[in-house]
Amino acid sequence: MFGSFTKGTAAGRRYVIRTAAFMSGYVAVNVAAIFGAFDDLASPVAAWALAATVSAPVVGQIWATLSLMRESDEFVRALIAKLFILAAGLSMAIATFWGFGESYADAPHLPAWFVYPLFWACFGLVAPFVKSSR
């Protein structure tokens, strides 16, 4: 995702390992949910525990990205920060647009967790256009 500017660096390798670890857990819990492993949750507490469990890898992925920034040189840190800010802003703009579409134009409801994959999609969309730390 961060292309050639982290390729082969120790920080880049740690980022890839951390991402693989966190996203493996994220996928595993979601696949289990899709196949009905959690369909019989008896209490709201168990349901909230599941929500926390599936959200934990998202927090881990954000930490992995921030760690990559901390462990990288100034140029890479600035590029990732710029990408992060642009992707966050674009994600908020799209989510706000869709939310108002739900309120005023009968757009179908989308769950709030869609913001996370939307953020990474926006990150990927803006990445080819960010070539400078300025």
In short:
This protein is mainly alpha-helical and 134 residues long. It is built from four helices and no strands. It is flat.
The radius of gyration is: 17 Å
Terminal-residue CA separation: 20 Å
Put simply, the count of helices is 4
**Helix/strand/pairing class, anyone?**
mainly alpha
- Rough outline: flat
Tally of extended strands?
0
Major sheet: size, sense and barrel closure?
none
List segments where confidence is low: pLDDT < 50 over at least 5 consecutive residues.
none
Order of helices and strands: HHHH
Strand content: under 5%
Mean pLDDT: 92
Proportion of helical residues: over 70%
Oligomer: single chain
Give an overview of the whole structure.
- This protein is mainly α and 134 residues long.
- Helix content is 72%, strand content 0%.
- It has helices spanning 10-34, 44-71, 74-104, 115-126.
- The longest helix has 31 residues, at 74-104.
- The radius of gyration is 17 Å and the shape is flat.
- It starts with 9 loop residues before the first helix and ends in an 8-residue tail after the last helix.
